[in-house]
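Colleagues,

Please find the record for the three-part complex below.
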Amino acid sequence: MSELKLTFREKVWEVTRRIPKGKVATYGQIAALVGSPKGARAVGMCMQTNPSIENAPCHRVVASNGKLTGYAFGGTNVKKTILLKEGVEFVGDKVDLKQSLWDEN
DNA sequence: AAACTGACTTCTC
DNA sequence: GGAGAAGCCAGTT
């Protein structure tokens, strides 16, 4: 019985950790992966309470339209810089989901 | 236990 | 394509 009873937050971090470098995932996508397709908002909170970037690369999480909605370690500006450095394609201020959206498979 | 808040998403105008 | 409003979820007060 592996009942580790991961809290929603921890599950979100687990998923976030699997996002490969150079790719990004949307809040809704993560929400769905943890079992709450409509909990995108809750996911955002988990990112905010994220203790460290090592625990969860929250910079790889963007809004459904590719917009950077927030970043607890320096702001969206820093977030964008990191993503660019990881090779994520940008279109203006938004991520080019066509090329950089994480394809779980 | 109830109410409020927020790094969301989707629909309409 | 941009602005406004409503719906949903978990965490915090």
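The longest helix of chain A spans residues 8-18.

Comments are welcome before we finalize the supplementary table.
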